[in-house]
Prior knowledge:
The protein is α/β, with parallel strands linked by helices. The chain is built from 15 helices and 15 strands. The longest helix is centred in the middle third of the chain and has 20 residues, at 212-231.
Amino acid sequence: MSGAMLPFRLPAPADGAVDVLIIAGEHSGDEHAARLVRELRASQPGVRVAALGGSELAAAGAQLLFDLTASSVVGLVEVLKNYSFFKTLMEETLRWISAYAPRAVLFVDYPGMNLRLASALRERGLSVKGGGVIKTLFYISPQIWAWKAKRRFAMARDLDALAVIFPFEVACYADTALPVEFVGHPFLAPDYAAPVSYDPAGPVLLLPGSRKQAVARIFPVLLAGYAEFLRGGAGRPATVLYPSDDILKVLRAVHPPAELQLVPTGTPVAASAVLTSSGTMSMHCALAGIPGAIAYRANFLTYLLGRMLVKIKYLGIANLLLNEPMYPEFIQGAATPQALAEQITAGLNDPARQAQTLERAERLRALLCRPTGGTAATWLRRQLGAA
């Protein structure tokens, strides 16, 4: 698979044993898990953590067994194209877990792979739910409120506990025996440095996502909207955030104009308006109160299947939480250059739109504030039997 080659064997634990194996297949999950690991290690310096994740987990002190974020794909067509790779990775991960028996496996989002692994651990008798000794934990629920709602019963069968980041998700599992706890949204953690903020004088922000296939489809759409905006006589510069060198290569392959600034995610950006895909960064922008819109373009077959299977009113999570379009959504053919240019112009020049966005950002923050039960790291310590 392009971007990552699976070693013949995942390396052995550096310390000879491991307390927690974390599996995070996306850049956002890698980031959230890294924050959890830093807090966990601050209270328990001796805890041994290994991971299939990315650079953030490695920097937080986890032993990185394999860079899974370099292999992230989305959509049925893309998954089928890489089926043999993921099958090999699954078998090697199961072999590693069987050989080194971590006290717990913490699955972070990435349900397509992670729920299959949890089921396989039970079937092979390795997990507590299968009669073994390894705890199976899940952080950041799959979106069962959007589609595949029946997965909650398989999750209750295969998992020991679930930590969710949206308060309404607890009720989604009320008809199962799975212990579910709301641990607050990671973007509202006191030590969290938001990658974006709102500045009416700042550049326009273009955010095509973090998966290579999706970025290759969405970035040209955002560029066309920005170019149409410039043709209207405005002279506002634009900035694009990219999460990895792989994504930077995809962006450059589109041949963006020289005046477009490409900067790595983690570089603070104060933006005046945004065109974004529907992923994690759209939530950052919503919490920051940056006016804008969501644009999304999927593989056509994936889009058709999604229309049949996904039963939600909005694609953006901020829109879903508020039950109103904080960010108007332009999907597939609706994401025309003219429509997106109009959204940039409204974000820059309409005081009512700007005030409305800031008011909705305040409501979002109130919805997602941390509960009294503590953080995800507090929850994980309890699951490991530590105080």
